[in-house]
Each structure stands twice: as C-alpha cells, then as structure tokens.
Amino acid sequence: MSNDVLAAVRPLLHGIAKRARTTDDDRRVPAETIKELTAAGVFRMLQPTRYGGLEADPVDFFEVIRAISGACASTGWVTSVIGVHPWQLGLFPDEAQRDVWGQNHDTLVCSSYAPVGRLIEVDGGFELTGRWSFSSGCDHAEWALLGALVMGEKGKAVDFLTVLVPRADYEIDDVWDVIGLRGTGSNDLVVEKAFVPAHRILRNYEHSQLRGPGQKVNPGPLYKLPFGAIFTTAITAPIVGVVDGCLTAYVATMGDRLRLSLGGGRFAEDPFAQVAVARAASETDAAILQLDRNIRALLDCAVAGEEIPMELRLRTRRDQVRATERALQAVDILFKTAGGNSLKRGNPIERAWRDAHAGSVHVANDVERALAMYGRGAFGIPVEDNLV
C-alpha cells in the first residue's frame, strides 16, 4: 500500500534538514516547518475521518516520522508527539473532539502526561491547578492534554485522568535549554484554577482497558489499539529515525575521508569502519522491523475484531524499548568511529548522538521496567501498567 503522506513529505526533507541548525539554536521548530507538515497531512494521519482525518495505518505514520527525524530529530520528535494526539483525542467524548476540530480540522494539541496536576470536583466538572514539564511543540498548539489526579476529601488521590485544556487556560513558561532535542521547545505549562468540563476528561484506567467514549463515534480499528503501544512507539520512532538518517550521513561524509593514522588511506577501505557500518545498519534495521511487525499485528487483531492478547501488548513494549537501545548502540558506534570529526557542533553525527540520547531518557524508554513487565507476563504473573 502506498504512503501518500510520505510522498508529500519527501520533497520537504531537504529544507527541514537545512533548518536543523536553526531549529536547534532557536529551541523550537520553525513555524514554516509546521505549516509545511500540516499541509502535507502528517498531523491528520491518526485523526478521525469525521473531522477531516485520514485514520491511516499507524505503520505508515511511523514511517513518515522516521523520515522526518532523519532530516531533523527535533522536528521528527515534535511531529510524532503532536501527531499522535489526534489518535488519543479520538477516544474522548465527541463533544471534546468538536471543541478542538469543530472549526478547524488542523488544530494541534500538545501534552504532558505526568500526573502532577490536581483536580477538585466541582459542579459540572473539575477545577485544575498544576505545572507540567516537557510539553514538546507547545508553542504550535491551541490545546493541551494534561495528566492530573482527582483529590478526595482527605487530600488523597482517588482517580487518574487525562484532561483537555484550551490555550486560554494555561501559560507557557520558556524553560527549555538542554543538550539534546533542543529544538523541541518542550517548555512548562502552568494552569491556575481552570475549569475543566466533564466531557473533556478521559480516565486512564478505562484507557488501559482499550476503551474510550469516543469509540461510539469512531468505531474504526485504529481506536481500539493500546495507548501503551501507540504512544510509546511515537517516542521511539524519532530516535530510530534520527539514527537511520545519521547512518546515511555517515556513509556519505566519511567514505572519501583519509585516515590520519595507520598509514593513512581512505576511511571506506578500513575493515573496522566497514564493520562499524554493518553493525549500525543491522541495529537500525532490526529496530524498524520489530516495531513495524508489532504495530501491524496489533492492528490486524483490531481489524479482525479480536481481543488483543496481553502477550502481544507486552511484546510490543519489549521491542519498543529494545528498539531505542538498538538505536543508541548504532549511534554510539558511528560517533566513536567518526573520531574527532564527530565533535564539531552542528555536525550531523554530533547532533544525532545528542538527540538520540536525549530521547532515550523519556519515561516511555524505561528499558528495565518494560523488560521486567515482559518477564512477569512470561512467568504468568499479572501485569498492570498504563504503558501496556
């Protein structure tokens, strides 16, 4: 099956790559890039058709993300995170979807899912207060999905929700100044006693059970997939993509370079360099193949109307974190064998190394936790986790 959005994105990649240094320096993706990707349809790939979306195959979406990330990791990261939110919004009550897309199908949504917000139940909904960090691409969004706890009478949390908040109800605090993924603009969001109507909430427990009110109006198989698979893969896909792009740049720039030691000679003729390329290519290929295999298997279950087995959900998480590990192993090989040439700031290898390692610290890439969950399942021990 052809990927029409990928075909529309490919001509944009050269310009995105040329703006990568500016994106890094400005600490945000240029508005020009967001406009181009919006026109190409990337942000509507996982959006319900009822609101102008494509309800595309998620494997196609992640293929697009990898291509963009190969040109600029920060752009790929923001595109992936913002691009996955229409899928989750499709699980909210239809009234919430209409709030966001009723007037403009291209309205974008950012997020910060950590349950640091506090919700107090009031007439018709909740009152929300909190500060959230790491909201990638928030400067380009008009709404935000935020994690929050419902506080009971004794000050204890009684429920964990994701709430939908309009731009008028939160402030953006520009605090993003980091070593990697600098261009993602992952700033803090601050909310002070904002009213959240009842239709703009999604209970995380219901979410983990593969249910959501939006399934009544969006009955397609796309909206029956696990959040723990779709969102975590949206975090890993840019990391794999940037390393795959780094490998291409490595081969192109290092091939004719002369070695300054061991008698000189072309770098490409060095068997150790050849082995490094082979190892890096194998790691990225393995990562992509496993990621795509699992997402496709999940979708096949949903299309067939079958229950998605926990074994498959756990395998998806296992291979997702391993894909991140594989990508880091590959970029470390490239960074090390490129020698001093990889140290200069702005060098594609240097930037890819920083960006991949920065992305790896996201909670979705908690390798030991995800592997332990798989091991528990393999031993027949029940697993309960929001990211499965």
What does this structure look like?
- This protein is α+β, with helices and mostly antiparallel strands and 388 residues long.
- The protein has three domains: 4-102, Acyl-CoA dehydrogenase/oxidase, N-terminal domain (Butyryl-Coa Dehydrogenase, subunit A, domain 1), CATH 1.10.540.10; 109-203, Butyryl-CoA Dehydrogenase, subunit A, domain 2; 225-378, Butyryl-CoA Dehydrogenase, subunit A, domain 3, CATH 1.20.140.
- The chain has 13 helices and seven strands.
- It has helices at 4-9, 13-18, 20-26, 31-40, 58-71, 73-89, 94-101, 204-208, 227-254, 271-303, 310-337, 348-360, 367-378; strands spanning 109-122, 125-135, 143-151, 157-166, 171-173, 187-197, 201-203.
- A seven-stranded mixed β-sheet has the order 5-6-2-1-3-4-7.
- Strand 1 (109-122) and strand 2 (125-135) form a beta hairpin.
- Helix 6 (73-89) packs antiparallel against helix 9 (227-254), helix 9 runs antiparallel to helix 10 and helix 11 (310-337) packs antiparallel against helix 13 (367-378).
- The model has no long low-confidence stretch (mean pLDDT 95).
Defining traits:
single chain; 388 residues; alpha+beta; Butyryl-CoA Dehydrogenase, subunit A, domain 2; Butyryl-CoA Dehydrogenase, subunit A, domain 3
Distance between the termini: 28 Å
3D shape: globular
Q: Percent of residues in helical segments?
A: 40-55%
> How many separate helices?
13
Which residue ranges are poorly predicted, with pLDDT under 50 across at least 5 consecutive positions?
A: none
CATH class (first level) name of the largest domain? Mainly Alpha
Total domain modules: 3
How many runs of DSSP E, i.e. beta strands?
7
Overall pLDDT, averaged? 95
Major sheet attributes: 7 strands, mixed
Strand % is 15-25%
Strand line-up across the major sheet: 5-6-2-1-3-4-7
